[in-house]
Structures are given as C-alpha cells and as structure tokens.
Amino acid sequence: MTIEGNWITGSLSADYPDVNYTVVELPEGSAGKGTIHFTNGWGIAADSPNQKGAIDLVEYLTSDDVVMDFARSFGIMPEHMKNCF
C-alpha cells in the first residue's frame, strides 16, 4: 500500500503493465476532500559557471511540449490551463 498523488496511476500503468492493482481515494477529512498536487521546482545556483546553459535547460523542461509529454507519461494535470487535455 502507498499514499501517492494522481500521477501514480500513469506510472504504474507504464512501468508495470502486467500487475493488477487498485487505486482508491483517501477518506474525506474534516476539511473535506482533497488531493495531492504534483510539483516540480527548478533552480540555478547564483555562482553556477554555466548559468546560460542552466537557463536554457529550465526553459526547455518547462516548454509546452515537454510539459505535455510529462503529463501524458505520468497521468498528471499540466500546470497551465492552456495545456490541459
């Protein structure tokens, strides 16, 4: 058993297609229903010797195409409404 976010279904389907499993929501708490939101964060050290390359990488990783590939691969919601499918 594991408590995970909504990305676990996509990951399990992709990585373990022959394993039978069940996914259920967490019980509702006193504040009502909730979910775990998937997050990523990117940072560049102020003293990085290759800040330009690091900025280029972060811009690539947060581009619409890469964000959507990630969302489709892991079954998560994209962070921008314009990318929702």
The radius of gyration is 17 Å
SS elements, strand count: 0
What characteristic shape results from the CA principal axes?
Answer: elongated
Average pLDDT number: 81
Helix content: 25-40%
Q: What is the total domain count?
A: 1
Tell me about this structure.
- The protein is mainly alpha-helical.
- The chain has one domain (8-83).
- 35% of the residues lie in helices and 0% in strands.
- It contains 3 helices and no strands.
- The chain has helices at 8-15, 51-61, 64-74.
- The protein is elongated, with a radius of gyration of 17 Å.
- It starts with 7 loop residues before the first helix and ends in an 11-residue tail after the last helix.
- The model has no long low-confidence stretch (mean pLDDT 81).
- This is Extracellular solute-binding protein.
What is the compact description of this entry?
It is built from three helices and no strands. With 85 residues, the protein is an all-alpha fold.
Observed structural traits:
85 residues; mainly alpha; 3 helices; elongated
Structural topology:
Layout: H1 8-15, H2 51-61, H3 64-74
